[in-house]
What we know:
CATH architecture of the largest domain: 3-Layer(aba) Sandwich
Radius of gyration: 24 Å
Number of helices: 20
Bound molecules: ligand TZD, calcium ion
Strand order of the largest sheet: 2-1-3-4-6-5
Shape: globular
CATH topology of the largest domain: Rossmann fold
CATH superfamily of the largest domain: Thiamin diphosphate (ThDP)-binding fold, Pyr/PP domains
Helix content: 25-40%
Largest sheet: 6 strands, parallel
Amino acid sequence: xxxxxxxxxxxxxxxxxxxxxxxxxxxxxxxxxxxxxxxxxxxxxxxxxxxxxxxxxxxxxxxxxxxxxxxxxxxxxxxxxxxxxxxxxxxxxxxxxxxxxxxxxxxxxxxxxxxxxxxxxxxxxxxxxxxxxxxxxxxxxxxxxxxxxxxxxxxxxxxxxxxxxxxxxxxxxxxxxxxxxxxxxxxxxxxxxxxxxxxxxxxxxxxxxxxxxxxxxxxxxxxxxxxxxxxxxxxxxxxxxxxxxxxxxxxxxxxxxxxxxxxxxxxxxxxxxxxxxxxxxxxxxxxxxxxxxxxxxxxxxxxxxxxxxxxxxxxxxxxxxxxxxxxxxxxxxxxxxxxxxxxxxxxxxxxxxxxxxxxxxxxxxxxxxxxxxxxxxxxxxxxxxxxxxxxxxxxxxxxxxxxxxxxxxxxxxxxxxxxxxxxxxxxxxxxxxxxxxxxxxxxxxxxxxxxxxxxxxxxxxxxxxxxxxxxxxxxxxxxxxxxxxxxxxxxxxxxxxxxxxxxxxxxxxxxxxxxxxxxxxxxxxxxx
Length: 528
Ligand code: TZD
Ligand code: CA
């Protein structure tokens, strides 16, 4: 008999969702029964880590990832991680087990009451099928919807007595379905863009995470070179859309209204691609745009386009639009740009290692195509200045600032990209929210190099307290943590390094091995 269970696994197989990130409970066991040999199950010990690993996997693979959570409690544990998945356009297909249909009403243990309401507003679509026969179709809908632009997480609650039901007639049609989108501008729209760009005297490019998400980095480079445009990374960068030592690269914009206008002063046209306008953070009011500037935004997300406080927007496929622009734009006649000077080494004062020095060592020793997963909030600026990133898919940072992304996402990224080495740079504060992912790294032998920057404090919050002129706030320090002991407790090899030489030695050793290693480095606190 073709059951809902066998039909759903056939759909998952057909759509390439054969890696399942989960943490099971009784409601989920009927789904996991007879788990097929060509699927792999990645167990996470806490749902924050489960969703974080799946997020990293989806972002790095470019396709949807399947998550299986335990009813309401498991979903709730995963929701912090969903804030990041939502803002990074990560196509997570999240399923959660529900009580048997006849016991939801009496609110038996593990009934997910009002299941579809629970994950909102952090999913594109949330649903519990009206009957067992509709589960395969709803799963197919969930996968296609998650993967449509703008990509994003979806949620499906499935009562556990549904799995053994006979599948509906015609279910085989679902296997062959492909849903694609087309996103080229009309020739009039393209012409207008070209006209505005060629008429500008001093245009500038601001690139966001969806340039990297759509694999259009090389097109952004060609566009910047053709029009001799400086290229900035949009504020609150969660990915790296442009090679960071390219002559046109200018750095990451600050996440404040006034700061952005200051950095872009003098430009008459600001072309934003693949980013919201803008992801501000600290409140520094001022002019939204520098004087005399116009803003044009190219985005795959109609919500991003609609909510911007200024500028014109064009919603479509970023890669297609960039390609069309590169084809039709004439070569600019401004002189080529000069690369920014490289930052100087910082003097060590003999005490704690400076993060800048650690990043210099990393830049020297890491493989050329290393992938960095970063979650140390006070060292973001120093990192972007000092660590070269060349390839697409080289950098991931929590897109909503929800901590607990870095450690698990590094594991997910490495699972998706076994041919490149993942280096996770995690603060001693951030590490705790997703610490159980170390266990998954050990058990599945996922060879991430975890570097813990241990400054004993929530460094970014210390800086924020100064910005907000808050004095005497409690709860900003995290002393007394031993990450080597924690790592060993979860089965991961650990090293401590307190000097530049010791760190270089530990990093070389970690990179030479083929399993996960954690390196704890006591560091100074610097400003973001
Ligand atoms: N909880 C969650 C889930 N997300 C958050 N962003 C915070 C709390 C607040 N928070 C920040 O926004 S930065 C930060 C916290 C606690 C400090 C992180 O400390 P760290 O990094 O040690 O990881 P630095 O380099 O010392 O800042
Ligand atoms: Ca810290």
